[in-house]
Design goal:
Oligomer: single chain
Radius of gyration: 23 Å
CATH class of the largest domain: Alpha Beta
Structural class: alpha/beta
CATH topology of the largest domain: UDP-N-acetylmuramoyl-L-alanine:D-glutamate ligase
Number of strands: 20
Helix content: 25-40%
Number of domains: 3
Distance between the termini: 53 Å
Shape: globular
Strand content: 15-25%
CATH superfamily of the largest domain: Mur-like, catalytic domain
Length: 481
């Protein structure tokens, strides 16, 4: 019999809980009936514009083990199935997450950073799985509900737990890292992301440095040595219970240092020094930023006492997460073209990284590089200049045609030469058919913008309209250092 994720006795230990009916065996946890699986414990979270209690009957009808509801509302669902009544549903999920962390004997790593959190989390999942049962969030569950939900889902048999922690305001990371209590904490980088909520970028560095406040005694802080805010981050680490600081990057003083990165359109070759030990490995996905963040992952592996060569070898099978550089071969009228889906989110650093990767993709004769770019959000008063400032990155990407969406992208549009201008639209939805009509044989189409712009629907429209490509995708260029 499969060991349950949570027993009835464990649920009964939640503060001020009342169990109504007999819960079925709990094998998971969910806050969304669309993805709920039989055996999931359903948390009826209540937000500003949405009340999960509306979906309690549907959750129980789908086979939820029980529904966690607010005390006083259990009468609404008396006939629906087993219930767990609590004073505060979110607090109950946090309590269950803390209980999962308290019973765990695994080694825990937490990741934050302005760029690269999810990609690094997925790389950690891949690498650590070589050494034992590894638990990580299925998506970017890095906020006030995503972190406790991921904790609540962590099996007691977990050998390694990987948690992504995000923020867009000060003091948001502190309570999350206190729940996770990592043995290792990584900051990928500090960039002017969410700068609208801070007086200066130093405030972002301080907010990212909050992750070290939750470190277990003697834990390891892993910092980006190349970042101009390294010393500020190190000060936060030294003020914590960290027993060791490891740095990564290309700088001479980095503990895990890239000596050479040969970045190609689909893969990279890295020569590195890991705590003085030479190491060469291949990364099975594109992006110089991915290669740099691989150094942080190897630093974590070394800190955990794992075989670093084995850890590095896992990178050969790394694939980009959905919406973060995913490559999809499509076909229009039987002629293949390539979609590079970078549409999950965007900021100035990730936008430049995506454009740099676009430059590495060689297109066949007659093909073009097409960039579909939408506004980058939460940049405050720096927004207009940040968008205008992308003109150089567009030029060096080798883009032949640019489609832009959003009022801020007007600034970039005004900087572009006429020959590159496809169309500027007020909203990304106006570009769905325009881009679909413009794409031709052998083209490479890269789509990127902040999540709120819904530019992801441009990529989704291309996938839906043209389906899987037939024949060879555009050929990749040779690796470049």
């Amino acid at each position: 019999m499969t060991t349950p994720l949570w027993t009835r006795e464990e649920l009964a230990k939640l503060p001020d809980v009342r169990l109504l009916g007999e819960p079925r065996p709990v094998t998971g946890a969910s806050i969304d009936t669309r993805s709920l699986l039989p055996g999931d414990l359903f948390f009826a979270l209540q937000g500003v514009s949405h009340d999960g209690h509306r979906h309690v009957p549907a959750a129980l009808a789908k086979g939820a083990a029980a529904a966690v509801v607010q005390s006083g509302r259990e009468g609404e669902f008396a006939e629906a199935g087993p219930l767990v009544a609590v004073p505060d549903v979110l607090r109950a999920m946090e309590d269950l997450g803390r209980a999962a962390r308290a019973r765990s004997t695994g080694r825990i790593v937490a990741v934050t950073g302005s760029v690269g959190k999810t990609g690094t989390k997925e790389a950690l999942r891949l690498v650590l799985s070589r050494f034992g049962e590894t638990h990580a969030a299925a998506a970017s569950f890095n906020n006030h509900w995503g972190v406790p939900l991921t904790l609540a889902r962590m099996p007691r048999s977990t050998a390694f737990g990987v948690f992504e922690i995000g923020m867009n305001h000060p003091d948001e990371i502190v309570p999350l890292t206190a729940m996770v209590r990592p043995h290792a904490a990584i900051v990928t980088t500090v960039e002017p992301v969410h700068i609208a909520h801070f007086k200066a970028i130093q405030g972002i560095a301080d907010a990212k440095g909050e992750i070290f406040s939750g470190l277990e005694a003697g834990g390891v802080a892993i910092l980006p040595r190349d970042n101009p805010h390294f010393e500020r981050l190190a000060a936060h680490a030294m003020a914590s219970r960290a027993g060791r600081i490891l740095s990564f990057g290309e700088s001479e003083g980095a503990d895990v240092r890239a000596l050479r990165i040969a970045a190609g359109p689909d893969a990279s070759e890295v020569e590195a020094s890991v705590l003085g030990r030479p190491l060469s490995y291949r990364i099975g996905t594109a992006g110089r930023h991915v290669a740099l963040n691989s150094l942080a992952v190897l630093a974590c592996a070394a800190a955990f006492g794992l075989d670093v060569e084995e850890a590095a070898s896992a990178y050969a099978t790394l694939a980009p997460p959905e919406g973060r550089g995913e490559r999809i071969a499509l076909a229009k009228d039987g002629a293949p073209f390539l979609l590079v889906d970078e549409s999950f989110n965007a900021n100035p650093a990730s936008m430049r990284a995506a454009l740099a990767t676009l430059a590495l993709i060689e297109v066949p004769a007659g093909g073009r590089r097409i960039a579909v770019l939408a506004d980058m959000g939460e940049l405050g008063e720096t927004g207009p200049a940040a968008h205008r400032g992308l003109a150089h990155a567009v030029a060096t990407s080798g883009a032949d045609l640019v489609f832009a969406a959003g009022p801020l992208m007007q600034g970039l549009w005004d900087e572009l030469p006429e020959r590159l201008r496809g169309r500027h639209a007020a909203h990304a939805s106006e570009l769905h058919d325009v881009v679909a009509e413009a794409v031709g044989p052998g083209d490479v189409v890269m789509v990127k913008g902040s999540k709120a712009t819904l530019v992801s629907k441009v990529a989704a429209h291309l996938k839906s309209r043209f389906g899987a490509g037939e024949g060879a995708a555009p050929q990749a260029a040779g690796a470049r250092s």
